[in-house]
Design goal:
globular; 3 helices; alpha+beta; seven-stranded antiparallel beta sheet
Length: 198
């Protein structure tokens, strides 16, 4: 999955703008560690959409995919994995932000940073329990492209529903893309529940 996105990016890249990875924070990086993106393409993937808009200053991008789990047990186990997921450092434990008011489906938010601003980074997973489907959204400045090209409504009713930025990767999410914040590097976490997508 992850390597496929890299290939998609590089297919559209002008020479000299190819990417080796998507990790990192700050200017001209993609502001995520994609921790809950499967590294292999899930066997249960149903929809996939990728968009990239190269720009002089900040590139826009959008990645969207859905996974329909094969039964209620696997879906419940995946949901439990999201509910219990945490990143531990020597100073703190950080959990995903849960929201069941502003989206069409319950949402587990990994990042929600500066919506409608230059460095907007949105990363979250919606759960359609009725159809046993997980909806993955990751974008910088281009949520509208996902909305137009997906079978799901992925945009919340209010883009500014959070009072302040949130990122599971940063020890202080309100400190926008602090280049000195390496707190994620030494963290521990368990993503074994992603196996339910395989």
């Amino acid at each position: 999955m992850y390597s496929g996105i890299i290939k998609d990016w590089n297919k559209m890249a002008t020479p000299g703008r190819e990417r080796k990875d998507l990790f990192g924070f700050g200017e001209y990086l993609y502001n995520s560690y994609l921790i809950l993106f499967p590294r292999e393409t899930p066997s249960c993937i149903k929809e996939y959409y990728f968009h990239w808009t190269p720009s002089i200053d900040v590139d826009g991008y959008a990645v969207y995919f859905t996974c329909k789990l094969e039964n209620t047990e696997k879906f419940s186990a995946f949901k439990s994995g999201l509910e219990n997921f945490e990143i531990k450092s020597s100073t703190a434990t950080r959990k995903l932000l849960y929201d069941n008011e502003h989206f069409s489906y319950p949402a587990y938010i990994i990042q929600w940073k500066e919506p409608n601003e230059k460095w907007e980074t949105l990363e979250y997973i919606l759960l359609d329990e009725e159809n046993l489907t997980a909806v993955f959204v990751y974008t910088m400045l281009e949520l509208e492209y996902i909305e137009k090209n997906s079978s799901y409504t992925v945009t919340p009713s209010d883009m500014n529903f959070l009072e302040k930025d949130f990122s599971i990767y940063l020890s202080d999410p309100s400190n926008t893309y602090d280049r000195t914040d390496n707190s994620f590097v030494d963290c521990t976490y368990d993503i074994s529940f992603l196996q339910y997508l395989m």
